[in-house]
Amino acid sequence: MKIKIALVLLCLATWVRAQTSVYQNNLSKRVTFSARQERVGDVLQKISNAGNFYFAYNGSLINQDSLVNLNAKGQPVREVLDAMFDGKVDYKENDSYIILRYAVNHFTIEPENITTAENLYMISGYVIDTKTGKKVKQASVYEKKLLQSAITDNDGFFTLKFKGEHQSIILTASKETYRDTALVFLSSINVKPEGYNDPDKEKGTFFGNALEELGIGRFFLSSKQRLQNLNIPSFFANTPFQASLTPGLSSHGMMSSQVVNKFSLNVLGGYTAGVDGVEIGGIFNLNKGDMKMVQVAGVFNVVGRNVTGVQVAGLHNGVQGSIKAVQVSGLLNQVKKNAEGVQVAGLVNIVSQNLRGVQVSGLSNITSREVNGIQVAGLGNIGSRTVRGMQLSSLFNYAKNNKGFQLALVNASDTSSGTSLGLINLVKTGYHKLSFSTNETINANVAYKSGNANLYTLLIGGYNFSDTAKVISFGLGMGHDFILGKTFSFATELSAQHLYLGNWDYANMLYKSQLNLQFRLFKGLSIFGGPSYNYYVSKAPLGSSGKNYRQQIVPSRHQDVGRYKGWVGWSVGITLM
Fold first, then answer.
1. Are strands 348-351 and 431-439 parallel, antiparallel or unpaired?
2. Residue 223: what pLDDT?
3. Would you say 436 and 448 are in contact if contact means Cβ atoms under 8 Å apart?
4. How far apart are CA 32 and CA 30, in angstroms?
5. If DSSP codes are grouped into helix, strand and coil, which group holds residue 192?
6. pLDDT, position 460
7. Mean pLDDT score across all residues of the chain
8. Which residue from 19, 134, 294, 300 could staple onto 316, CB 3.0 to 4.6 Å apart?
9. Which alpha helices (DSSP H) does 185-259 contain, by range?
10. What pLDDT sits at residue 131?
11. Which residues contact 526 (CB under 8 A, 6 or more apart)?
């Protein structure tokens, strides 16, 4: 029997040494630097730069303004951190990060009963604070390989049952402010075991608790699940399959939030560490970490980190990180960081940082930073910084800096080097011009120009002052300026105006194309003039105008263009800028 135990322990020690040697951890790297009365946050940055890795920690638990005096010459990072924090901080790590966790306390697992039988292994016991001797409640006790866990009750007591034949079982205890501890149980003995140093306890993936902090997470997750996530923030496993009825009622039990699955089936809803394959939820899917490939839910999907692939929900897709994906929802797609790909929503798409791709929604699209792509909305689009691409909507588009194309009833931007096409185009630093002119048809016209040189819109009004030939006009137009220098330019303009001739019995439309040569006299004032071609569309018979209104709009020199009339005209005026 002793020989068997020795062989098992020898194999275990060899495996631990092999695992440790394969993984060159950041805590073992040697750093050299000096710090005199420097802030903790600045010293951590020095260590990070020297070791070529990053720190992750909760700023509320570590006073970053505390002053540090250190002189490290080729010391391991672990020794430097122990000296800085006086052993009150625990360390986890992966390839890029060292995760700092406040852990001033220590505890141990003390088994009370160990039962072995055919295909059954049961362990019960207590988690005890080594300093005070008190039993620790709400600590997580779990087996990493078998994905079984329990939370200690108010007396610090736990029970775990394992089915199947297992040569060894390793229990780990975790809780906030405590250093993790682990024990190994060999199936051939039933005496109190010695301590076990888990070779992977310094490694892990760093997932935050962003999902639990959301209202939707607090609503759907039990207090035990949230407690488990606080106790075990950095252990994650991968399995091919999981099924659940609701969060907690899962094939992985309370460990579901620590497991990344290839295929996940949630009858009503499920809560997992992530997906690297396919996940289907009857009502909802909740993922603590990343979702890769395909996720489908009847009502909503919420992912705590990033999404890559396809995400489809009946109402809502919410992502706390970035996406490189196609998102489709009946109501709302929301991404807290960057979005690359396609978003399609029945009402609204929201991206809190940059968009590279396409947004299509029934109501509006909102991107808080840069847009490189296309926004199409039933009501309006908003790009809070630079927009390169297109914004298309029925009512309004806004881009802080428009470097693309806008099409809507109203287009607005702070600056614009692109093109805006709409009834009203407003550019804060662009055109705000008022023109006064006269022509062969109406002797007093005023037009407001807004937009930029690429494309500006005109709101036009006119009145022909005459006792016997009054004409009132109003209409819209657009134009483009060809800049020849600081003094000269010329503009091409197209406009459509309704002419009111004393009654509303007929639609009298005057379409005009105009070429103006523009001369700048000084800043704020220019004069212009040039030819125009007019096309008049009206079915009003001669003499149908009201009293004192012009009876004949078309001049004697004109051309018949189909059923209507055209002629060459002129226009001169001034522009105030």
1. unpaired
2. 58
3. no
4. 7
5. coil
6. 96
7. 83
8. 300
9. 210-213, 215-220, 223-231
10. 81
11. 518, 519, 520, 574, 575, 577
Question: In whole angstroms, what is the distance from residue 298 CA to residue 312 CA?
Answer: 8
Write out the H or E segment, with its range, that includes residue 308.
strand 307-313
Question: What residue ranges of the chain have pLDDT lower than 50?
Answer: 1-24, 188-206
Beta-bridge mates of residue 510: 497, 536
What pLDDT, on a 0 to 100 scale, did the predictor assign at position 313?
A: 97
What is the strand order of the sheet 168-174 is part of? 148-151, 140-143, 168-174, 181-186
* Ranges of H-type helices in 453-511: none
Contact yes or no for 267/247 (Cβ under 8 A):
no
The answer to whether the beta carbons of residues 438 and 571 sit under 8 Å apart is: yes
- Residue 267 CA, chain-centre distance (Å), reads 28
pLDDT confidence of residue 1: 46
Q: Read off the pLDDT of residues 68-81 as tens digits, 9 standing for 90 and up.
A: 888 888 888 888 88
Instruction: Look up residue 63 and give its two tokens.
Output: 């006073």
In angstroms, the first-to-last Cα distance of the chain is 99
- Residue 342 in tokens: 């396609």
* Residues ≥6 apart with Cβ < 8 Å to 451: 416, 420, 425, 426, 427, 430, 431, 457
